[in-house]
Amino acid sequence: MNNKNLNLIEIEKKVSWLSNYIIHYANNVRKKNDDLKVGGHQASCASVVSILIVLYFKVLKKYDRIAIKPHASPVFHAIQYLLGNQTVNNLKNFRKLNGAQAYPSKTKDFCDVDFSTGSVGLGGAMTIFSSFTQDFLNENKLLKIPQSKMIAIFGDAELDEGNIYEALLEGAKHNLRNCWWIVDYNRQSLDGIVHERLFEKIISLFKLMDWNVEILKYGEKLNSLKNLKEGRKLLKWIDDCPNDLFSALTFQGGAEWRKTLLEEFKNEKNVISLLEGFNDKDLQELMTNLAGHDAESLEEVFFKHINSDKPTCFICYTVKGFGLPLAGHKDNHSGIMNLKQFNDYQKKMGIRKGKEWDKVEGLNLNISDFNAIINSNPLSKIKRELDENILKVMPLNITFNNFTSTQECFGKIMNEIGKMDNDFSKRIVTTSPDVTVSTNLGGWVNQKNIFNTNLKSDIFREKKVSSAQKWKYLPNGQHIELGIAENNLFLLLASLGISDKLFGKRLLPIGTIYDTFIGRGLDALNYATYVDSRFILIGTPSGITLSHEGGAHQSIITPNIGISQPNLIYYEPSYADEFNFLFFWALNFIQNKEGSSIYFRLSTKKLLQPNRKIDKLLQKDLINGCYWLKEPKSLNSIIIICTGVMIAEVEKSLEEIYHDEIDIGLLIAISPDKLYKDWEKSKYSGNISQIENKLKPFSNKTTGIITIIDGHSSSLSWIGGVLGHKIFPMGVNKFGKSGDLEEVYKYTNIDFKSIIDRLAKLLLNN
Questions:
Q1: Distance from chain centroid for Cα 648
Q2: Is 390 part of any domain?
Q3: Could you tell me if 496 and 534 are in contact, meaning their C-beta atoms sit under 8 angstroms apart?
Q4: For residues 490 and 513, what is the distance between their CA atoms, to the nearest angstrom?
């Protein structure tokens, strides 16, 4: 073994020590104000140390990106500490406020995290969609850095997550490139042992998806047995050994290995003779000498594929808890070494008391050699400097039909942008999970084409089959067509929305989805906003207004999702001019440092458009969440607050009961989300919120308020608590069903007659 590899082993020892000490310090040394277990995953860390050491100190280049399996967070932070990208204070505050995070976080950690992980499966799948993003930038001549590898480290149990396979299928459809998935195959999950037969099927699936598959099973010691007949018999026994038996024997140690193997090979003198050549300690080391802990084996196989852009899956056999007294135990997932075990471990590692955080303590490596290794690493004290200036987006002067819907308005805006050929229009990339046409993106796609790294002609057009869709698949296309998998939509938006941070070029991503199916991709949407990705989400059609489609397609709770989801602002415009202004405002807002993603909940219901100009005051009100369509005249008024297309039913009800003596004010709540957040914030800031500012001059505590939305009534009912008004919330609180619009509105009690009934009861009560 050469000096470089000996040095690597020393670095590996240090990372192993630090990752365990980070957890030990948090649970047993640091002062706590309660008796809660801080936690950490020493066994899960131990199984992946060698893999990460080889990657970080042998393989990774400056712009390569990596998703670390969530439970290996301390290993990641230990490596970053050695590389000068993490502070010792953050390590001491692991799992404490503002310290190193429990799971690697792009937005919460001090050091540069490429992909947040934590909700297992999602961070790893992000590497597929980041590969797409890199290809998109490259084919559209926007990528200014070298094409790089997108790498994920998975725990084997993560492959139980369904989103993994949705992502794999999408990768197969889009000619996935430059993506590695490395599986830490320690064969143990949170509650038990991974099923070996199932994993064989998973390996076959990768091959079917046209991935290279490398199985790294034996380390150098076990591989050397292949030269002996009796050695091959022992290897065959290991191959056939059930995962649970292998784990149990690993925990019990060399004596139990010997007992089991002597019984198994009692009639095989040559095998017995082979076993007798090892003492118990050496036998334990031999039987657990798996390739996932062998730096030379890992390096050799990784470099075999370093210059290939074909996606590759590396199955690395490991031992969960390798080198620790927890190794192999069924319950080791959240287990932590007790004080005696850790003291023994500390002595074994040669770490003196008081020197636990010293970077070279316990190493057979002097400080100058250590510094040379660190300083030569391309990821040491890394500054990728990839942020890009904001693209100024100017609104377009678009004329809309007098009778139109917000979804139709969206399609017209995108069609007009599609006619442009400038830096702004080239940065827009759209995507949709097989609902491109039905969410009105067809005109845009006809002009900007579908992205595909391989040219593909429109066969229907060539065969002169008449169609409004003239789709071409081109490397410089600006629409990414996805299959029906909403998780994939949000993970792609997540990647596109951090393209400036990953690749140094800002994109303006726009995703469309049937509004009700936001719920199907909610975990991935939560992930996208957690990493502070910036995009515009169009949820359309929405509500039970999608009447004929029935309850399965009619969204109810999405307004509440919009209100409660961090890093996402929800708007639900009623009219085309509102949406037109907000859409172009959003394209600027998502780029601001203090901005966020924007969710527009749109509808196919056409409304008669108001004849007005959006002046500066109205613009401000639209951004802040509400405006008076009809101001009350007195303090003794009734106020109706409505959102979205329900304005049509409200106006119809007012026409029916029009009377000069009834003073009814009409407030359009274009963003229940913005109003709620602003009101909540005002309780701490002391400022008057937008909703208070609008209601206070025209109401007193006897004023009744009716709220109505084509969604769950709770999304507006909170307004009663702003100034203490009596509130009468109207909305959709049960599943809808198929029917004509009038029938469905009546069925859910949000039709104009229900509004009249509510007004009448309110007048009687007053």
A1: 37
A2: no
A3: no
A4: 10
Are 443 and 641 spatial neighbours (Cβ–Cβ below 8 Å)?
no
Q: Locate tokens 């396979």: which residue? A: 165
Per the domain annotation, does 387 fall within a domain?
no
Distance of CA 42 to the CA centre of its chain: 25
pTM of the model: 0.94
Residues 204 and 89 in one domain: yes
In a domain, 395, yes or no: no
Q: Is residue 163 part of a domain?
A: yes
Six token digits for residue 555 = 């969204």
Which of 289, 310, 332 finishes a domain? 289
Pair of tokens at residue 675? 């109003």
Residues 267 and 331 in one domain: no
Q: pLDDT-derived band of residue 453, with 50, 70 and 90 as boundaries?
A: confident
Q: What's the pLDDT score for residue 766?
A: 65
Q: What is the side-by-side strand order in the sheet with 473-474? A: 473-474, 450-451, 479-482, 428-433, 508-513, 536-539, 597-601, 568-571
What is the residue type of 180? W
Model confidence pLDDT, tens digit, residues 541-582: 999 998 888 888 899 999 999 999 999 999 999 999 999 999
CA dist., res. 137 & res. 147, Å (int): 10
Q: Specify the CATH number for the domain of residue 517.
A: 3.40.50.970
Range of the domain at 271: 219-289
Claim to verify: residue 8 and residue 119 sit in the same structural domain: yes
β-sheet with 626-630: strand ranges across: 626-630, 664-669, 638-642, 704-708, 726-730
Instruction: Give me the number of domains the chain comprises.
Output: 4
Q: What is the mean pLDDT of residues 202-217?
A: 92
3-state secondary structure 61-110: CCCCEEECCHHHHHHHHHHHHHCCCCCHHHHHCCCCCCCCCCCCCCCCCC
Residue 445 and residue 428 in contact, taking contact as beta carbons nearer than 8 Å: no
